[in-house]
Write a structure and sequence with these properties.
Layout lengths: L3 E9 L5 E5 L2 E6 L6 E9 L3 E11 L25 H20 L20 E9 L4 E5 L19 H4 L2 H9 L9 E6 L4 E6 L6 H14 L1 E6 L7 E3 L6 E5 L4 E5 L9 H15 L6 E5 L7 H7 L2 E6 L2 H13 L5 E5 L6 H6 L6 E4 L7 H9 L4 E6 L2 H13 L3 E9 L9 E8 L2
Parallel strand pairs: 3-5, 9-10, 14-15, 14-17, 15-16, 17-18
Antiparallel strand pairs: 1-2, 1-4, 2-3, 4-5, 6-7, 6-8, 8-9, 10-11, 12-13, 18-20, 19-20
Length: about 425
Amino acid sequence: MPLEAMCVIASLNHDGCGVGHCDGKVVFVDGALPGEEVRFRYINRKRRFDTGVAQEILVPSPYRVEPRCAHFGVCGGCRLQHLDPSAQLFAKEGVVREAFTHIARVECPEWAPPVAGPVFGYRRKARLGARVVDKKGGLLVGFRERRHSYIAPLTLCHTLDARIGRRLVDLKGLMEGLSCPESIPQVEFAAGDEAAALVFRHLQDLTDEDVQALAAFGDVHGFGIYAQAGGPETVQGIGGRTAPLRYALPEFDVELSFGPTDFIQVNGETNKAMVTQAVDWLRLDRESRVLDLYCGLGNFTLPIARRAASVLAVEGAAALVDKGRANARQNGLDHVEYATADLDSMVLADLLGDRRFDAALLDPPRTGAMAAVQVLASRQVPRLVYVSCNPATLARDAQWLVQSGGYRLARAGVVDMFPHTHHIEAMALFERAP
């Protein structure tokens, strides 16, 4: 059985691998781009498909570019730095189109231009792994390797916000000086428009000297410093640099506060454009009654509230609901009602009672929102804007909405929240079928 072979790449799959055919089987080739002829090495051979990694690019794509990062190819943080950003958007839209065609079996009549923003220095939330590996020289700090669970040691990251992306060597030096670097498996980074924070997950108690060193690092480099001994509820500030984290959505005169371990959209500028598009697609007026599901801290809720008569915001995590309420008060929005409910079950129907809504927005996790869309369809909500981080579950839910729920898919588009990665965000508009 040959260890290497050649093939022509037709497309990219949802993981950012080139898709080709060799010996009558589909082969997924890491590092290969559409239109390229490549020589690849087999990694795994299965009955229905094979996987491999590109060894030589025999005929390169015109969209192949030189990766900016010296760690590209080893670090698993990025998969597509070798592809021009405009071509990345085209490929990601292709994945969403294919999901609608082959999973949902529906065609989208209108594709919106991609929502995009900065492609470097954009990442304002990240979890860096850390591990002491004596055979590799000691402490390693970085993302996981592409095809392994090992830590890829980074000295510089171009996709991270520069406040941390250019401080990785300093961060490693700090951790090497602590009493227990082998017991700190993770460092979480979070950045607002002004302040930024680091959260050190530790598996054994920090010494007084450790605490002093962490606080001093925060003072020198301008970070709020936090320690986390267990779950999110154990996060505690260290030293005096624990300024609240905030980001603004100026178009809606909204500012949101969040904690260092709270979920926020990774790309701040792209998020602004995404929120604007979502609100536009909802077609609101001063009498609109809107339902916002999986509302989190209020990223969509509060901008919607600036345009609508009322908003009911529902989230499964009670802690986020509390923070959402606080954000609404902070912005003077007293016509927002918050509620906690399990949105993966039919209890949403009981929560809504006999209320009627003119529009709804959903921003679910990767598992999708099947239970929620069934409830919305039973209420015949006229317009649904669905923001998705998983084309497969978006297509699954779209199939039910169109074939069983009485909706038509009116418009869709991709949102490039994670440039250079294989992660795909998309937005779809569903309208009640006439």
